[in-house]
Amino acid sequence: MSVQGSILVADDDAAIRTVLNQALSRVGHHVRVTSNAATLWRWVSAGEGDLVITDVVMPDENAFDMLPRIRKLRPDLPVIVMSAQNTFMTAIRASEVGAYEYLPKPFDLTELLGIVGRALAEPKGKPAQPRASEQPESMPLIGRSPAMQDIYRMLARMMQTDLTVMITGESGTGKELVARALHEFGRRRNGPFVAINMAAIPRDLIESELFGHEKGAFTGAQHRSSGRFEQAEGGTLFLDEIGDMPMEAQTRLLRVLQQGEYTTVGGRTPIKTDVRIVAATNKDLRALINQGLFREDLFYRLNVVPLRLPPLRERVEDIPDLVRHFFAEAEKEGLQSKRIDKGGLGVMMQYSWPGNVRELENLVRRLAALYPQDVITEEIIASELRGATSIETPRTGEGLPEDMPLGQAVEQYLQRHFRSFGTALPPPGLYHRIIAEVEYPLVLAALAATQGNQIRAAELLGLNRNTLRKKIRELGVDVYRASKHPSGEPVSG
């Protein structure tokens, strides 16, 4: 049974006020609306309202400046903030000043009603205290697409926790940037951030790199050396390319995560550790588990909060913002100010970007350094991208023609899979492993095509909705949520 309440709405956009008034009233809430912060503050000061919904930018005052006063006067009053700015820093700022939730504009009405219901139903407790502006002012993540908004909001929720995070995504999507943001904007920001790339370290040295070694522990160990766990004490340890960690090191890492202590290579005394773990991979760890190459128990220890970074081709609307950012960075380094014309941006948004944001950054830096003109034209962009991946025919797989039948592609995959074992056979359970690997992209593609609408995705797949929900949980599929009004139109302001 839903909980009804008195809702105070503040937004200087009359259309937004009308939409919220109608939607909230329809489900039984008593709603009062205003177009300015002064009236909202007067209502709050008088003890009115069980919940506040406010835009960040008001004609007379910024909601972020007013929210600490609201928290001090009425600490149990939940405040939902909305913003059309839609940047990573907006989400972080909302979390810092104690907002119950942050919603980017355009927002999804159904999602907002769900948040309102949860906020009103929650028992009143001690609120999170807003923090002073001790954070870096730079913005580490760029993009205003719906996919990035979901990431910003999840990151904002995790800033005041020490939960272990598993970041997945293709190479070049910015996994280390996200890990650094978790550290620099979190409560361990005064501690060290230590990164280690498992793929860049010889297998026989990984344990020594992680845990350190004692003098004489092995040939060449002429003195004691601290490991990354010791170096990251009190801070964050970023384990990049975790899928490349050898099995013996996985066993030791699991023991550390379970017991909170480790021993150096050649050492006997356990050492207590206090670090936050953030792991990242561009590999399918579930497939590695099925192949016996990654420990399932370690996967669940690391995958406490899964965070998938979308490839650039899934958020091409962010390309103009990213281009401006990278040109601005190049200008700081002494290069000439430049921009790309509309036609050039159009070409870039048709390209598949196999190297993701890293490839885009390299292209922008090359344009800034090599071309004398202030405006980079469509012809230049087409010339630069020609010969990489076809603009008209985006890459669909590793050397597979776009029109190859699915059965033939699977057959070629299985042939390579069997060859990888030489004269031996793959581990038992091949049927279920292959079915699981096909199911994941199938469910993900259906959800992406229906913009996260599980009812439509279930119909598309020919599945019962409960069956689809079960598969989403079992497969660990990240549900894409589009910011749409239930009518199909975006809600913006």
UniProtKB/TrEMBL annotation:
- Name assigned to this protein: DNA-binding transcriptional regulator NtrC
Q: What does this protein do?
A: Member of the two-component regulatory system NtrB/NtrC, which controls expression of the nitrogen-regulated (ntr) genes in response to nitrogen limitation. Phosphorylated NtrC binds directly to DNA and stimulates the formation of open promoter-sigma54-RNA polymerase complexes.
All copies of domain Sigma-54 factor interaction, residue ranges: 141-369
The answer, when asked if NADP is one of the entry's keywords, is: no
- Primary residence: cytoplasm
Q: Which Pfam family would be a valid example here?
A: Sigma54_activat
**Places the protein is found:** Cytoplasm
Its domain of life reads: Bacteria
Enumerate the residue ranges of region (Disordered): 123-142
- Residues that the record marks as modified (4-aspartylphosphate) are D55
Q: Which residues form the Response regulatory domain?
A: 6-120
Q: Which SUPFAM superfamilies match?
A: CheY-like, Homeodomain-like, P-loop containing nucleoside triphosphate hydrolases
Which residue ranges traverse the bilayer? none
What keywords tag this UniProt record?
A: Activator, ATP-binding, Cytoplasm, DNA-binding, Nitrogen fixation, Nucleotide-binding, Phosphoprotein, Repressor, Transcription, Transcription regulation, Two-component regulatory system
